[in-house]
Amino acid sequence: MSPLRPLLAAVALAALTACAKPVPPPAAANDPIPLTGAHDTLEAEQYLHYAVGAHVDAPPEVVWALLTDAAAYPDWNSTVVSLDGAIALGETIKLVSTVDPGRTFKLEVSAFEPDRRLVWEDGNDSFRGVRTFTLTPAGGGTDVTMKEALTGTMLPKIAPKLPDFGPSFDAFMADLKAEAERRSPKPVEEPAVEPDEPEEQEAALPEE
């Protein structure tokens, strides 16, 4: 075999990839995320996502404080080895996860809406990963969802080599729920008040 053949094949593949156009996500990608605490997976052409949701008995500001304190993630989140940088709009953070501890993901914070929505992402049209957190007040607590959408023209070749992120998503949400509820101030219960017993009326004495 000519030594140039592998090089030519690589160049041809790169050229085809550059010319390929990303495929829009499927309509189901916008379906509501169930608040079951267990992940859902959606696979389609040039699209893959993991999503999980849960109701957290804590106000949005408590959940938001956890999600935006980068240095503290390893203290409460069993899926994160380290998270360096400032979680703020336009900033780049460096994430090392237990799913792939030998790799550091450099992520841009692309949306930062306090107590409502947080997005970080990396990549390009060839391969992009976007993680979105949403917080919605509900029933005195917060409905929280997390979705990681993987897209791109190279996804069909990359996806078979990716680990299963599902268990990590379940653990992330379980840890977030537990820590937010632990930190959330609990309402003070008023002691039960015993109803006053009616005073016994003295029997009227007969007149002498």
Describe the protein in words:
There is one protein chain. The N and C termini lie far apart (134 Å). A hairpin with a 7-residue loop joins strand 3 (80-84) and strand 4. The chain is built from 5 helices and 8 strands, in the order H-E-E-H-H-E-E-E-E-E-E-H-H. Residues 2-18 have low confidence and may be disordered. Helix 2 packs across helix 5. It has a domain at 39-183: START domain (Alpha-D-Glucose-1,6-Bisphosphate, Chain A, domain 4, 2-Layer Sandwich), CATH 3.30.530.20. With 208 residues, the chain is of the alpha+beta class. Strands 1-2-8-7-6-5-4-3 form an 8-stranded antiparallel beta sheet, covered by helices on one side. The protein is elongated, with a radius of gyration of 27 Å.
CATH topology heading of the domain at 39-183: Alpha-D-Glucose-1,6-Bisphosphate, Chain A, domain 4
Please state the structural category.
alpha+beta
End-to-end separation:
134 Å
Content of β-strand: 25-35%
Mind describing the biggest β-sheet? 8 strands, antiparallel
